[in-house]
Predict the structure.
Amino acid sequence: MIPFTKAHACGNDFLIVLEEDAAGRDFAALTRRLCQRNTGIGADGIEFFSWVNRDVPGPASGRIRLHNADGSIAELSGNGTRCVAAWMAAALGSQAGETLDILTDAGLRRCRIDRVQSGDAFIVDVTTGMGVPSFQPRTVRLASGAEVAGIEVSTGNPHFVILVENDDFTVAGQPWQTLGAAICTHSDFPRQTNVEFVRIASEREIAIRIFERGVGPTTSSGTGSSASATAALAAWRCLSPLTVVAPGGAQTVAWSGPDKELLLTGPATLIARGEAW
């Protein structure tokens, strides 16, 4: 049996499994099976965790390796990392103001615990240093010949961010889910890409929809919120701090510009603990 914890950040849900508990298993196959919504536990991915530093002075630290629901490996999930920070905070009894270091395949992410709420649920508000984003305008030509302009952003993993003007997030009459799937797997992105659709509500708030690589449409994304905010702040005259509203809830992004680290703030909730075959 494999012990697990299930957590979510704005509806973006993950299983947290100690690597040692899954030793000898095929992580990709295990992830596909456990993430199935009807026949498994259900999740957008599994964060496989190992402690690096738990009992010596300094910030506690751990190492995570993320597999998406389809079994593919992702460099990083902002929401998944925040869920792991909540799990670590519960394990360590962390208090507001403490920091936790989490090593990902996109590098080190330092998480500051802003608030801890326990009772009917264990909820942690976390501010995560997401690194220095890079960005550039790009146009993708679809198989139909239509061209879609956007901004390519890296937050440690790849994103293509598209500005929309409609409340339903359609682009040239196409549903965002359809266009997201086409761009995600486009030949311009050999390793595929996450795709975000951004509608500007005000200079301090944007609404987004997310087509996540290896998952599909999802309620929230930490790196997707970070990438969307990068595009909005760099190219679309929005102001920091910026509220990013996805179907699963709002997160806040603070970024002072190129060559500066972007900070992402949002909640994470521990849902359940259990064991799986």
